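Human
Can I borrow your eye for a moment on a structure tokenisation matter? Give me a protein, with the fold worked out from its sequence. Write it directly below this note and I will take it from there.

Assistant
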Amino acid sequence: MLVGISFAANALANFLVGLLVAKFLGPTEYGRFALAFATAVLINAAGFDWLRLSAIRFYSERARLERPEVRATLDDCVATIAFIISLIVLAVAFSGVELPISTGLLAMAAATGVASGLYDYTTALARARFLDKTFTGIIIVKNLLGLLLTVGGAWWLHSAALALAGVTLSVAGALAAAGRPLLDRGAGPALGRWSMAKSFMAYGLPFVGSGILFQAIPLINRTLVSSLFGFGETGQFSLANDLGVRVLAAIASTLDVLLFQLAVRADEAHGPARARAQLAENMTTVLAIVLPTAVGLWLILPSFEALIVPEAYRGPFAHYLALMLPGLAAYVMLQYTISPIFQIAKRPRPMIVVGLTACAADGLFILLLPRVDGFSFAVAQSGAQIIGLSTGIALALMTRPHWPAWRDLAAPVLATGVMALIVLPLRGRAPGALTLAMQASLGVACYATLAYLLDIAKARARLSSLIETAAPLSRRERRRG
């Protein structure tokens, strides 16, 4: 529970930091920041994400005590990848190649990518050993420093490079302040094994390759938008994409932190059949949360934009996000319901096919759609992500997964549709705090009621368990009083 709350708080902090950075930088400078940050995300994914996945899957408290070579190999790989990235950036900087961003901004993007990779790897180690307090401490310090340094750099000097420097320094400060319990003195560099590193690569790199392909879609689209319409339009495009991803992916990743480990445990303790059943249950839970969130975000979009989005972005923001939402929801469902099927089955290669198909679809849509403004790129991106999800589902059929019952899939779709019909008339009201409060309260009440009546994602059992857990705590508090 503490880990889930920490993930949710981290997502909220990232959302707030992104919003404030966009506000203080303005559309043009934020366009540069967004392009550099997307590069940093790509560097993180390409260089370090396979190590994060391997740490979650193969490292544990038992492995720390009985197989120190696991941690030693992981640490050696992290150091090696960071060194290689540094060499590549230096080579590019001195090559004279013309880039969409300046050499200095590229260097900061690389530093941010390495820092983010180290942060994700370190928190994965904490998750693997169930060190909830350490995990929470790292997140809290990183977010506090992020608000101070990243937002401070954007506010004080209006510089994309200094905002990125703030991201890097916040990670370094968090690991120095709270990462000490993760030091493993029994896993020195001499214990690292190349054969083990290759097995980690074989497991993680196909998933990483798929992730890179999907992250390349918005990165390429941003680059094209900047070349055709300028950095100002790139900022408009990027803020809508970034905030949409942060809302939906943050919710799904919080669920994944809690749910995927259940499937791993089921696989280890009871075998593949039980793991597949757990994945089917996880799929229903993710769908039951992500679908109404995406639809609800569209319903409140006018008020959300008026109250939260910086004034310089209003208008284009709502249009961009409305076009992107179907694709973003599809992407999140792919990553957190379909990809785990291949992870548990240890068959990662189909995800490469999924990523290639999505990239090809994005290119085809860009060629076919009229490029009179940036909105056509939002449509292309959304269409590509939907095709990616469809391809993933088709390939997952080959693993003979345990799919949820049709009723379990239909119930959240029905409840979301009813919620949308009830809340939709309020979308025509003047945007504002009262309208947003009415929409949110009515939507939540409607969906929660239907979730209980239709028993969506075992809502009744979960509510009963929550009440039973809370009751003894309440009695103990009364006795203390």
